[in-house]
Automatic annotation (TrEMBL):
Transmembrane segments: none annotated. It comes from Ramlibacter henchirensis. The keyword RNA-binding applies. Pfam families: RRM_1. Keywords: RNA-binding. Residues 77-98 are annotated as: Disordered. This is RNA-binding protein. GO terms for molecular function: RNA binding. The keyword RNA-binding applies. SUPFAM superfamilies: RNA-binding domain, RBD (SSF54928). Gene3D superfamilies: 3.30.70.330. Residues 3-81 form the RRM domain. PANTHER family: HETEROGENEOUS NUCLEAR RIBONUCLEOPROTEIN 87F-RELATED.
Length: 98
C-alpha cells in the first residue's frame, strides 16, 4: 500500500488545512490538497492526502472511509496513478483554411 490517499465526497467548504487536521489523528500528514476548478477556484469536492508511511495511510482509510463530515460520507481509498486521457477533439484548434 502507498502513502497517497484519494478523498472524495468532501464538503465544498473544506480547505486544505481542514483536511490536514482531520487526517492528522491517524499520523503525520505530509501533504493535503483539495482539487479546485481552474476557472472559478471552487472546490471540486475531492482531494488527496499523503501520509508519512503506509501503516498510517491504512489507518486513515479505515478510520475515515464512510465517516460523516459536513453531512457527507467521505470516500477514502488508496490513490491510483492518473490514467492518460485521449486528446480533446472538436472546438477551435485546427487549420481548416479560414
Amino acid at each position: 500500500m502507498g502513502n497517497k490517499l484519494y478523498v472524495g465526497n468532501l464538503p465544498y467548504t473544506f480547505s486544505d488545512s481542514d483536511m490536514e487536521q482531520a487526517f492528522s489523528q491517524f499520523g503525520a500528514v505530509s501533504s493535503a490538497k483539495i482539487v479546485t476548478d481552474r476557472d472559478s477556484g471552487r472546490s471540486k469536492g475531492f482531494g488527496f492526502v499523503e501520509m508519512s508511511n503506509p501503516a498510517e495511510a491504512k489507518a486513515a482509510i479505515e478510520g475515515m472511509n464512510g465517516h460523516q463530515l459536513g453531512g457527507r460520507g467521505l470516500v477514502v481509498n488508496e490513490a491510483r496513478p492518473m490514467e492518460p486521457r485521449a486528446p480533446r477533439s472538436g472546438g477551435f484548434g485546427g487549420s481548416r483554411g479560414y
